[in-house]
Amino acid sequence: GDIAEQDAVARAGGQMISPGGSYPQKIRAGVAATTEGLLFLGADDLRFETGWLTAAQAAITAGAHVVGVNDCILRRRRRVHATHFLMTREYAHRPCADGKPGPLSDAYKHNFCDDELIATATHRGVYAHAARARVRHLHPMVRTAPDDATYRQGRAGFDEDRVTFIGRAPLWT
């Protein structure tokens, strides 16, 4: 429903898909819509800092298939946690820990699918966190964006998704 954003995509000559559904379903639709060798899993609330892609690609060159980029949100409990990722197409087609289509599990509405992606890719030995790949997350929780219905909807299933994540932990441990 963000008309200004849709207009900007059209002016730039970009392709926009609007599949609906959960965040994992939207990401899967995006993966299916391209044939590129590297994919960026992210949202429209990001500001990319100079050099982020070079820093993330360095981790891919070093052998990682999933690279967590630094979203510049300070977290006390998960200091190097990532919510956005550069990923190889090869990995994007690997199944989730439960064997179902990836790269993100449909077990989640929105939250904790990134935690499971990190845990699974780490267990498989193909994850790297690229601290110098800085992608600033413009988010109400850190006062870099106003709160609105989109963010409220994303938070609505937080507790349910957390319980799901805790229950699925044996899949990748």
Task: Give an overview of the whole structure.
By secondary structure, this protein is α+β, with helices and mostly antiparallel strands. It is built from seven helices and five strands, in the order ααββαββααβαα. It has helices spanning 3-11, 23-32, 52-61, 89-92, 113-123, 149-156, 158-168, and strands at 38-41, 46-48, 66-70, 85-88, 127-137. A five-stranded mixed beta sheet has the order 1-4-3-5-2. The longest helix has 11 residues, at 113-123. The protein is globular. The N and C termini lie far apart (40 Å).
SSE arrangement:
Elements: H1 3-11, H2 23-32, E1 38-41, E2 46-48, H3 52-61, E3 66-70, E4 85-88, H4 89-92, H5 113-123, E5 127-137, H6 149-156, H7 158-168
Main sheet record: 5 strands, mixed
- On the 0 to 100 scale, the average pLDDT is 88
Q: What percent strand?
A: 15-25%
Query: Would you tell me the structural class of the helices and strands?
Result: alpha+beta
Low-confidence segments, given as residue ranges, are: none
What is the first-to-last residue Cα distance?
A: 40 Å
Q: Please list the strands of the largest sheet in the order they lie side by side.
A: 1-4-3-5-2
Number of helices: 7
Helix content: 25-40%
Global shape: globular
- The topology string of helices and strands comes to HHEEHEEHHEHH
Number of strands: 5
Radius of gyration: 16 Å
